[in-house]
Amino acid sequence: QKKWYVFTPELSCSGCDPEADSVTTVNIAYAIMTEVAKGYSRIVRVGIDALLKYEKEHLFMTRTVREVLWGYDDPLFAEFSKLKDMFNLKFLPEISPLITMEYNETYDGISTVNTGTKNMDRTLDWIAWKGQSSMGLWNSSYANMINGSDGTQFPPGSGPGDTLYFFSTNLCRSIYLKFDSAKKMKGIPVNRYTTPASLFKNYTEVSSNRDFCLGRCYPDGILAGSQDCTPSTVTSPIVISTPHF
């Protein structure tokens, strides 16, 4: 399915401007480069360290909201690629200068979903994504399941005792929501569901979460409720977590 995003100022906070408002967050380029350096000789590590200092890169960075959401050309990656080509360092990985979280006017693969004609509760439930009925990425058939809807619709009449499931193509895994509270939206009674703490809890507390650890499971501590979900084809660690504010 094709996705696109539109910023609607009148529905956002008063005075918010994605071009001017900034966010301080983890410097993805810095994290990737330090991880890449681990796998090479001392001379390569020294070279990457010199590049980080030359570009004045640090673990945290400040970027505009627009840059964080829609991407920017990172000068560190650009310089890395330039030096790689200049000195013909073919053994180093190819890294695009563009860092982006979301893509406008793109699609995330062919989605096959239930029409709900025989059972309304199954409307928009996944049948397959990219022609596959399971992921084949994680460590068990349970973890690889493609469950529920795409998150835009859930079974009508869902109550406090129900668990809602949806599959996130961005995370390449299924997520579940638990009842949080009863609310009213423009006078209409609604139920609020949220991701429970158990979703990303350490495998020492929720044993089934070990199935989502690729390579290693991080110990619980610095970032409680996080999982290492780094595919073998990716050069830097990827950790999934709920927001920490």
Describe this structure in words.
- The chain has helices spanning 28-37, 42-54, 65-70, 75-86, and strands spanning 2-3, 22-26, 60-64, 72-73, 98-99, 106-107, 111-113, 126-129, 164-168, 173-185, 188-194, 226-228, 239-241.
- The strands form six sheets. The protein has a three-stranded antiparallel β-sheet, with no helix packed on it. The protein has a two-stranded antiparallel ribbon with strand order 1-6. The chain has a two-stranded antiparallel ribbon with strand order 2-3.
- The relative contact order is 0.10.
- The model has no long low-confidence stretch (mean pLDDT 85).
- The longest helix has 13 residues, at 42-54.
- It has four helices and 13 strands.
- The protein is an alpha+beta fold and 245 residues long.
- It has two domains: 2-99, no CATH class; 108-241, no CATH class.
Helix/sheet category = alpha+beta
Largest sheet: 3 strands, antiparallel
Annotation, overall tally of beta strands = 13
Termini separation comes to 32 Å
Low-confidence stretches: none
Subcellular location: Membrane
Keywords: Glycoprotein, Membrane, Transmembrane, Transmembrane helix
GO molecular function, one term: scavenger receptor activity
InterPro entries: CD36_fam
Chart the SSEs and their pairings.
Layout: E1 2-3, E2 22-26, H1 28-37, H2 42-54, E3 60-64, H3 65-70, E4 72-73, H4 75-86, E5 98-99, E6 106-107, E7 111-113, E8 126-129, E9 164-168, E10 173-185, E11 188-194, E12 226-228, E13 239-241
Antiparallel strand pairs: 1-6, 2-3, 4-5, 7-8, 9-10, 10-11, 12-13
Helix pairs in contact: 1-2
